[in-house]
UniProtKB/TrEMBL annotation:
GO terms for cellular component: membrane. Its EC number is 7.1.1.9. It is a multi-pass membrane protein. Pfam families: COX2 (PF00116), Cytochrom_C (PF00034). InterPro entries: CcO_II, CcO_II-like_C, Copper_CuA, Cupredoxin, CuRO_CcO_Caa3_II, Cyt_c-like_dom, Cyt_c-like_dom_sf, Cyt_c_oxidase_su2. It is found in: Membrane. This is cytochrome-c oxidase. The lineage of its organism: Bacteria, Pseudomonadati, Pseudomonadota, Gammaproteobacteria, Pseudomonadales. It is an enzyme of class 7 (translocase). Residues 124-236 form the Cytochrome oxidase subunit II copper A binding domain. The chain crosses the membrane at residues 46-67, 87-110. Subunits I and II form the functional core of the enzyme complex. Electrons originating in cytochrome c are transferred via heme a and Cu(A) to the binuclear center formed by heme a3 and Cu(B). It comes from Pseudomonas sihuiensis. CDD domains: CuRO_CcO_Caa3_II (cd04213).
Length: 335
C-alpha cells in the first residue's frame, strides 16, 4: 500500500498538471485563433480542436500502455514468441497507427483547407484590398478607391475580403487570428488570402514570420465596420483634403518628412507610412505607442529608442518648436 502511494503521488501530480494546461492558457483576447469571429477563422479553430482532441486521445492511449508495461509482471516466453510480439507492436504501433492517424487528419483537414481557399464565388464578389509588408509596418491599399493607409485595416462586416499580400523587403507573414488563417508575404510574389468578419469590432493582426529585430512591433489594427460605416469611412478617406501646415514648420515637414511620407494633398513620399489619417489611428509605430495626445511628439523625439533600427532618421538637428508644431498638426489628420 505504501509502495502504491509512493508511485501514485508524482504520477497524480503530473496528470493533474497536464489536465490543467488547457485551463491555464488564454483562449480569448483580440489575437486568439481559438476565439473566431468569422467563417475562415472558425474552420481554423475547428481543425485545431479536432487535432487537439486526437492528440489527447493518442497521449492517453500511449500513457495507459506505458503504465501497463511498467506494472505488469514479465511473462515467461521463448525467444520466437518474444520476437513475434515485438514485431506485432512494431507493425501495429509504428506503422499502422501513424498511417491511420495521418489519413484521418488528412480526411478531416483537406476539406477545411479547400473551404478556406479564395475560390470564385457565385454571388457577391469579394472586396479586394492590397497589403504590403515593410520592415516594420503595414501598407494597406484599397485599389478600387485609391485610398492608402498604414498599420490599420478597415473591413466591411459580413462580406468576404480578398487580401493580395506581398512584401517590399524581407519575408513577412500576414495573420489576423480571429478572422482567418495566415499567409506569407514574399518579395516579388502576390499571395491571396480571404478573410471575413461576422461582427463589427476591433481585431489584432501580427506579422507571424520573423522579419528582423522589430518583428514584434509589427502589429496591425483591424477595424470591422457595418456596411454603412465602412462606406462612410471609405468615402471620407477618398475625399479627404488636408491643408498644408503653414510657416517654417510646414517648410521643415515638406523638406524632411514629406520626402518619405505621403499626406493627401500635401506630400507624395512613398517610402514610409502614409500619414493622411495618422491622427485617427489607435497606435503609433505599428504597436509601439498608444496614440494618445502627446504621443506623436514623443515618437518624433524618441522613435529610435522606442523602436531601434526603424528607417526614420533622427530629428536631433531640427528645432524642437518645429517638431512640436508638426506633431500637433499630425494629430489633427483624420478623415
Ligand atoms: Cu515579422
Amino acid at each position: 500500500m505504501k509502495r502504491a502511494r509512493h508511485w501514485l503521488t508524482p504520477c497524480f501530480k503530473l496528470t493533474t498538471l497536464t489536465l490543467a494546461v488547457p485551463f491555464l492558457v488564454a483562449c480569448e483576447g483580440p489575437q486568439s485563433a481559438l476565439d473566431p469571429a468569422g467563417p475562415m477563422a472558425r474552420e481554423v479553430a475547428m481543425l485545431w480542436w479536432a487535432m487537439c482532441a486526437f492528440a489527447t486521445l493518442v497521449l492517453i492511449v500511449v500513457m495507459a500502455l506505458w503504465v501497463h508495461a511498467m506494472r505488469r509482471n514479465s511473462p515467461q516466453m521463448d525467444a520466437a514468441r518474444a520476437r513475434q510480439l515485438t514485431l506485432r507492436w512494431l507493425v501495429g504501433g509504428g506503422l499502422l497507427l501513424p498511417t491511420l492517424s495521418v489519413l484521418l487528419l488528412l480526411l478531416f483537414g483537406i476539406p477545411i483547407g479547400h473551404r478556406m481557399l479564395p475560390l470564385p464565388l457565385a454571388g457577391e464578389q469579394p472586396m479586394r484590398i492590397e497589403v504590403v509588408g515593410h520592415q516594420w509596418w503595414w501598407e494597406v491599399r484599397y485599389p478600387d478607391s485609391g485610398v492608402v493607409t498604414a498599420n490599420q485595416l478597415h473591413l466591411p462586416v459580413g462580406r468576404p475580403v480578398d487580401l493580395d499580400v506581398t512584401s517590399a523587403d524581407v519575408i513577412h507573414s500576414f495573420w489576423v487570428p480571429r478572422l482567418g488563417g495566415k499567409i506569407d508575404m514574399i518579395p516579388g510574389r502576390d499571395n491571396r488570402i480571404r478573410l471575413q468578419a461576422d461582427q463589427a469590432g476591433t481585431f489584432r493582426g501580427q506579422c507571424s514570420e520573423f522579419c528582423g529585430t522589430q518583428h514584434t512591433h509589427m502589429i496591425l489594427d483591424v477595424q470591422a465596420h457595418d456596411e454603412e460605416d465602412f462606406a462612410n469611412w471609405l468615402q471620407a478617406r477618398r475625399e479627404q483634403q488636408v491643408s498644408a501646415l503653414p510657416g517654417p514648420a510646414g517648410e521643415v515637414f515638406a523638406a524632411r518628412c514629406g520626402q518619405c511620407h505621403r499626406v493627401a494633398g500635401v506630400s507624395e513620399g512613398n517610402r514610409a507610412p502614409d500619414l493622411s489619417d495618422v491622427g485617427a489611428r489607435s497606435m503609433l509605430g505599428a504597436g509601439v505607442l498608444s496614440n494618445e495626445p502627446g504621443a506623436l511628439l514623443r515618437w518624433l523625439h524618441e522613435h529610435q529608442r522606442l523602436k531601434p533600427g526603424n528607417a526614420m532618421p533622427l530629428h536631433d538637428d531640427l528645432d524642437p518648436d518645429h517638431l512640436s508644431t508638426i506633431a500637433d498638426w499630425l494629430e489633427t489628420l483624420r478623415p
